[in-house]
Specification:
α5 crosses α7. With 287 residues, the protein is α/β, with parallel strands linked by helices.
Length: 287
Amino acid sequence: MRYNDNARLDSGQVAGGGGGAGGRIAVGGGVGTMILLFILSQLFGIDLTGLAGGGQAESRPDSNAYAHCQTGQDIQQNRECRWVAYTNSIQDYWSQAYSGYQMTQTRLFTNQVSTACGTATSAVGPFYCPADSRVYLDETFFDSMLRQLGGQKSDAAEAYVIAHEYGHHIQNLTGVMEQVQRQGQTTGPDSPATRLELQADCYAGVWFKHVVNDPQGPISQVTQEDLNNALDAARIVGDDSIQQRTQGRVNPDAWTHGSSEQRKRWLATGYNTGDPNACNTFASRQV
């Protein structure tokens, strides 16, 4: 990915730390939390299921943490500014594509963070909290978990993960997330939970299609290699891929996010069509 040196960055869309506490943690859109935490527990060799409860965090949100990120050129001097570029680009697109869009924040943290959905640690991975409408991630996730799952760290892989979480923000704004949550903690390759996650993948693909449309935007080029890296990231976070690596077997009945094939296909659907309306995974016979 290449960045537009002259693009103005809105650093206020990214903050450090988090605030608020209570409720239950919302991982990957708040559906299938305990199952996902169990899978992650297998991956890291420790019990993470206790993260489903509330709690207090040591860190507080710092809205000025990325104040030094003013233009695209700043990414060359400080790589942390790329988080601002991702977030700005994603929200610029959705603010134009969806009339009811509400701006929010990406909050990066280290070790532990408290949110309106509860307390989470780095082991949870990136997630969206519908209670405060924010995207949370520990950037070390891309150095640790993705590598353990066999993926390669790249800007495109990072951007895909964040765009996926903002896909959940769209679902929260449109009411789709609430509808799925009302149906309970269902699992499986054809479940509402899986369809919710695949739709978020599709939305990420749509953003990739339009990422360079704005000549004033922070991202100036996305290559085929970038797209391949994004697809590879979707592959390694497929439920079957994680299960095979952590448990040595695949159990489709426990899927909450979709298989590697499903995730790659819906990410590609979003990119190939460039149309959010093509992302209605709930109406599709082939999930």
